[in-house]
Amino acid sequence: MLQTTVYRDPTGFDVLRLEWNALLARSAFNSLFLTWEWQTTWWECLGAGELYLVTFRTAGGELVGIAPLFLTCDAAGCELHLVGCTEVADYLDIIIAQGHEPEVYSGFLHFLMGPEAPAWDSITLCNLYEPSPTYRLLPAMAEAVGWQTAVNQEDVAPYLILPPTFDAYLDTLDKKQRHELRRKRSKLEREAGSWRWFQVQGGDDLESWVDRFVALHRRASAAKESFMTPVMVAFFQRIARATSARGWLRLAFIEINGELASTYFDFDFDDRIWVYNSGFDPDVYGPLSPGIVLNSLLIEDAIQTGHRVFDFLQGGEIYKYRLGAVDARVMRVTLRR
Q1: The domain over range 159-311 is classified in CATH as 3.40.50.2300
Q2: For strand 63-74 and strand 50-57, is the pairing parallel, antiparallel, or unpaired?
Q3: pTM of structure
Q4: What confidence category does residue 1 fall into, taking pLDDT thresholds of 50, 70 and 90?
């Protein structure tokens, strides 16, 4: 039996800071959204309810699991969720060192049945990325103790495995999409006048660059404008600072004749580019397709810098497939007593 410790307030994050990311790197999938930086920022900006950071250690004191949870209650009952669920964290999970999954899941179930757990009616483990063993192993173990379980596909997460050269990447596209991408890039070169693309990774003026991203994000669509509330702006500012401090932030822009036309809020983490969010000005620059062009430039840059994966994250938007992406599944596990 593993040793279980439960932290009921954010000081638990401080206690675990030096061990958190090292454990994550030993898990089945090293998710940006499960890093100490992301989890603490999410909780500080968007967290609600009661925090439960549940840790699992071997008899020798080795940390082999963290279940970052929070509890919310309403008229329908009380539900435990993963910290980060759901709006702004694409891949979540219980963090477990590879090879220790069965014993951590067993310890997790013992915690849920024990006196340190809150009174709960259901548990939702959202945004489980396809490599996760959680949706494969945990439901059967929960059913064995008499609980009801459900496993559902929540979304898709298109991605590219990057070849060694950009020309080789273009060869992976079908003829029509290859022609369209070259046409869009040529049109921007031909008609934009003065233009450039660049990336911001940090600096004293980072806050102003995030503000410019927010402005373009809001212009892109009514849905994006409604999403980017003052609370979300504060989250984007905080996560930009946290990830910039670790060298992970890649805030990209295309500028046309001195005006910003499109932007991507991306991350460079664990040999993967994480395409997190975007914006552009459709009214002024829509005919020049600056969003698609910028995405293709970011793919080219990722190849040139030796990255392995270009991850579009959740959502089956058509432009991702036109750029050659294939799907991974994102799953959800629900447990009920």
Answers
A1: no
A2: antiparallel
A3: 0.96
A4: confident
